[in-house]
Every structure is written in C-alpha cells, then in structure tokens.
C-alpha cells in the first residue's frame, strides 16, 4: 500500500526551482507572476464562484439564457457573466463560466439543474451505463465552451488572466454515480470498493476527456487551469492515492507535455495533511487551500514544496462582513507575506453574499 506521506519533501520537483523559471519573460498579467517565482505584495486576488447568484446582473443574464446549462453553452451569455465580476471588482483573474458537470453532459449522461435543488444526473451504476458514455461525442459541446474562452480573451482587459477549469475525475465521478450532490459520496465510494476495475474505467474516461477539454481551453486562450476536487477529503489514504492523486497526476503530465508554460492549480478540498503528498505527486504548480487548511501548512510546509499557495478565507466571512472580515483578511495577508501567494476563498462565494462585502475584501487585500 502506498500511503500518503504528509511530511515527504522528496517529490519530483526540487524545492527552490520556481515552477515558472522556464518562462521566457515576466508576464504582464499579475496573476501569473507568482508562478514565475515572484512573491507579490499585495498578492493577486480572485474568488471561486466570483460569477454567480449573489450578483443581480448574473441573475438577470441567467433568466435571459434559460436553463443553467443553456447559460454554460451560450458563448454570448457565458462571456457576459464571466466579465460581470471583473467589471465590478477588477479581479486579477477571470474564471471561465461553465460547470464541472458539463463533462458528463458532453459525454452523453443526462444532466439537469433544477432551480434551488442543485444538479440531477441519471446515475451511472453498471458496465452497461458506462458503455453509453461516448468521448467522441464531446466535441460539439466543448466547442461552445471554447468559443466562450476565445471571446473572453478578446474582451477581457489585457492585464486580466483567464483561468480555465475542469472538475477532477474523482469529484465528477461522485456526481455521475450518485446522481446528485451528497455529503458522503457513498455510491461512488462503494462502487470503487466493490468493483475497482469497473470504477477505474469511469475514471480513465474522465481523465482522457478532461485532458482533451483542458487542452482545448488552453488553445482557445486560457492562461492557467484549475482542477476542482471538491470531494477529495472523503477518501481514506489508499483510496485518495488511487482516485485523487493518480488521475490528477495523469492530467497534469499530459497538459505539461503540451503546454509547459500554463500553470495548473489543484484544489483537493478537505485533503488536510495529504495535500503535501498531492502536491509532491501530481506536479501541480499551485495548491488551492480550503478554509480548514492549517496556517503552518499554508505559510511554511508548502514553501518547501515549491508551489504557489492560493486561499483560504471562509466564504461566510464575506456574508458577515465588517470587522470580522477585515481582521481575517489582514491575518491571512500577514501570514503569507513574502510567499508566492494568491488571495482567494477556501470555497465558493455563497448566494447570500452582499456584493458590497466583496468590494470591501478586494480593497482590503489591495490596501486601498
Ligand atoms: O445559477 C445557479 O443557480 C447555478 C449555481 C451555479 C454556478 C454559478 C452552479 C451549479 N455552477 C456554477 C458555476 C461554477 N461551478 C463555476 C463557474 C466559475 C466561477 O467560479 O465563477 C465553477 C468553477 C463551478 C465548479 C463546480 N460546480 C464545482 C467545484 C467547485 C465547488 O464549488 O465545490 C462543483 C462541485 C460544481 C457542481 C455544482 N454546480 C452547481 C451547483 C449548485 C453545484 C454543487 C452541487 C452540490 O454538490 O450540492
């Protein structure tokens, strides 16, 4: 058994070699500089789910587009909602507006988003269900998403970086197998225990499809990529190795071969100490830290791993606002001073967030 070694510092990349050292010149996009070895003060800032229901203009565009998936597949509307938070707050990076569940939808699984209920999928539980997924079918839907990326690169301010993304195979599989969001991801975990070879086929399909999807996003103009592994934290160590680390490593390796200059951020939410192992093994250039990540890991342990750290304000502080928000922002900035750091939340913005608190956060981070 290859158990995670949280204290391991002997990964494939030696500490002290900035991941961006092979880049020819310094980027004019601040967001990219930490990946080129620079510790910026103030750090670049963007927020997960910065486009979303907390913004009235998002709700208006979403109503106009029709269903949530119609919004994702409409280049005009998806470009508009991606730009909305950039216009309001001038974040250092925009994130392509789409969803991690676009991948199962493009593979031919039935996916719907019921208002106020979250996603529903026709669950995949058997080899026959698996056989119906068709990677050859994804081209049309991925083209629509990539048209959004192209439009964005044309419309974003030149100094704003554009982040492309996908869900990590494990997290996407949990939705595909469960048929909806769940707190314990039981159906996927049980399938993986009872029939590891069968489950591996699903993961392999997702690895190959995600490589193709991310490759296409980079060719369309994405400057950086993030891999969202929201449910990485529910797996015991050996399962974490098989279903989180190995698939992510395969995706990173394939993208690095094609686009060595494009930084990749991993977000293994809930991984705790195993995030060190994840960084070591997968070769990601950046690590997204969730709200519960211990401060010493953010400020010290990851420095030895030579990785850019991103995170980790509690999204509920953006709801609370006031002194509590200011104090925690200051604490994080102080902790990460002198480090290659990108300010973000520990998870996505929640719908009840007052937009003015987001402005307050950005000003506070920038010392304005
Ligand atoms: O308008 C609405 O009602 C839809 C709400 C919404 C939004 C704004 C969903 C449904 N997805 C999104 C956009 C989205 N999702 C982005 C766009 C870019 C941005 O950050 O601004 C991204 C990157 C995602 C990624 C995503 N989708 C994740 C990973 C990150 C995370 O939040 O943990 C996950 C798990 C999803 C699935 C999903 N999509 C939507 C919902 C409500 C959920 C969660 C379902 C659940 O498990 O309860």
The overall pLDDT, averaged over residues, is 93
The gyration radius over C-alpha positions equals 19 Å
**Overall spatial form:** globular
Low-confidence stretches: 1-23
What's the quaternary structure here? single chain
CATH architecture: Alpha-Beta Barrel
Helix content: 40-55%
- CATH class, named Alpha Beta
Number of structural units classed as domains: 1
Each distinct ligand: coproporphyrinogen I
Query: How are the strands ordered across the major sheet?
Result: 1-4-5-6-7-8-9
What summary fits the major beta sheet? 7 strands, parallel
Task: Classify the beta-strand content into a percent band.
Answer: 5-15%
N-to-C CA distance: 51 Å
Order of helices and strands: HHHEHEEHHEHHHEHEHEHEHHEH
CATH structural fold name:
TIM Barrel
Can you tag this structure with a few keywords?
368 residues; alpha/beta; TIM Barrel; 7-stranded parallel beta sheet; two-stranded antiparallel ribbon; 15 helices; 9 strands; 48% helix; disordered N terminus; binds coproporphyrinogen I
Structural features, described:
There is one protein chain. The protein is of the alpha/beta class. The protein has a single domain, classed as TIM Barrel (Alpha-Beta Barrel). The chain is 48% helix and 12% strand. The chain has 15 helices and nine strands. Strands 1-4-5-6-7-8-9 form a seven-stranded parallel beta sheet. A two-stranded antiparallel sheet has the order 2-3. Helix 7 packs across helix 9. Bound molecules: coproporphyrinogen I (1CP). The site of coproporphyrinogen I has 22 residues, from strand 3 and strand 4. The site of coproporphyrinogen I (1CP) has 22 residues, from strand 3 and strand 4.
């Amino acid at each position: 058994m290859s158990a995670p070694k949280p204290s391991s510092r002997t990964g494939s990349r030696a500490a002290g070699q900035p991941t961006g050292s092979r880049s020819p010149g310094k980027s004019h996009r601040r967001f990219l500089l930490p990946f080129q070895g620079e510790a910026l003060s103030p750090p670049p800032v963007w927020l997960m789910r910065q486009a979303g229901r907390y913004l009235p203009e998002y709700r208006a565009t979403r109503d106009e587009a029709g269903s949530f998936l119609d919004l994702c597949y409409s280049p005009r509307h998806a470009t508009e909602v991606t730009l909305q938070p950039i216009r309001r707050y001038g974040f250092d990076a925009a994130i392509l507006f789409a969803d991690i569940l676009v991948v199962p939808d493009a593979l031919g699984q039935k996916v719907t988003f019921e208002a106020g209920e979250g996603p529903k999928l026709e669950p995949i539980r058997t080899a026959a269900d698996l056989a119906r997924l068709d990677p050859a079918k994804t081209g049309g839907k991925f083209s629509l998403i990539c048209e959004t990326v192209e439009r964005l690169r044309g419309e974003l301010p030149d100094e704003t970086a554009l982040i492309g993304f996908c869900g990590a195979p494990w997290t996407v599989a949990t939705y595909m197998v469960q048929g909806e969001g769940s707190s314990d991801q039981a159906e996927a975990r049980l399938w993986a225990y009872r029939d590891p070879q069968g489950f591996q086929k699903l993961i392999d399909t997702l690895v190959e499809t995600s490589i193709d999807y991310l490759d296409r996003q980079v060719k369309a103009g994405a400057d950086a990529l993030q891999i969202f592994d929201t449910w990485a934290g529910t797996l015991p160590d050996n399962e974490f190795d098989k279903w989180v680390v190995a698939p992510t490593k395969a995706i990173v390796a394939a993208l690095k071969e094609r686009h060595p200059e494009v930084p990749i951020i991993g977000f293994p939410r809930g991984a705790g100490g195993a995030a060190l192992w994840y960084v070591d093994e997968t070769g990601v250039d950046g690590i997204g830290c969730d709200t519960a990540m211990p401060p010493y890991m953010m400020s010290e342990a990851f420095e030895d791993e030579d990785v850019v750290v991103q995170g980790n304000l509690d999204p509920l502080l953006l709801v609370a606002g006031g002194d509590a928000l200011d104090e925690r922002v200051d604490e994080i900035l102080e902790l990460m001073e002198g480090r290659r750091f990108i300010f973000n939340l520990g998870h996505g913005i929640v719908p009840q967030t007052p937009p003015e608190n987001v402005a307050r956060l950005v000003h506070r981070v920038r010392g304005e």
